[in-house]
């Protein structure tokens, strides 16, 4: 979000299915954030299978959370890809790579803490331009 961020949520183990997504992400983060933002809130996800389950759809509808229409397989548009890239580069730059799950968790949390808020804000503010560019090229690849 502009000017702020939530903590990085790391799932302990197992696959992220619709129920886990609802209980660990939508209810504790998205629902509360939507409540603070009001009617202007528009939720964006990336069409991952757990995001499109009946449970997720029903929860979003019951909370009156509007979801942004999102084309399938459109990483060019999604700012989260830049976040993952930043974290990946931080991990790759470490002198000693993490070798345990605990070390990986700590390295990801450190990387997230080191991410400049300005980077996040710039990515969010670029969405209008990204969408316009995508429309101009009729859904073809756009440079990030």
Oligomer: single chain
Structural class comes to: mainly alpha
Order of helices and strands: HHHHHH
- In the predicted model, the low-confidence regions spanning at least 5 consecutive residues are none
Sheet having the most strands: none
Q: Helical percent range?
A: 40-55%
The count of helical stretches stands at 6
Summed over residues and divided by their number, the pLDDT gives a mean of 86
Terminal CA distance:
19 Å
Q: What's the alpha carbon Rg, rounded to whole Å?
A: 16 Å
Q: How many beta-strand elements? A: 0
Query: What's the overall geometry?
Result: globular
Give the DSSP E fraction (strand runs of 2 or more residues). Answer: under 5%
Pfam families: DDE_3
Domain Tc1-like transposase DDE: 43-94
GO molecular function: nucleic acid binding
Protein name: Transposable element Tc1 transposase
């Amino acid at each position: 979000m502009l000017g702020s961020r939530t903590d990085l949520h790391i799932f302990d183990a197992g696959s992220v299915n619709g129920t886990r997504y609802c209980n660990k992400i939508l209810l504790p983060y998205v629902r509360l954030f939507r409540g603070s933002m009001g009617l202007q809130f528009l939720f964006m996800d990336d069409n991952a299978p757990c995001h499109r389950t009946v449970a997720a759809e029903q929860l979003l509808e019951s909370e009156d959370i509007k979801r942004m229409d999102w084309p399938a397989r459109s990483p060019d548009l999604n700012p989260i890809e830049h976040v993952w890239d930043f974290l990946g580069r931080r991990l790759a730059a470490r002198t000693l790579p993490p070798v345990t799950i605990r070390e990986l968790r700590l390295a990801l949390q450190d990387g997230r803490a080191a991410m400049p808020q300005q980077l996040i804000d710039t990515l969010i503010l670029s969405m209008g331009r990204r969408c316009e560019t995508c429309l101009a090229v009729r859904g073809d690849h756009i440079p990030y």
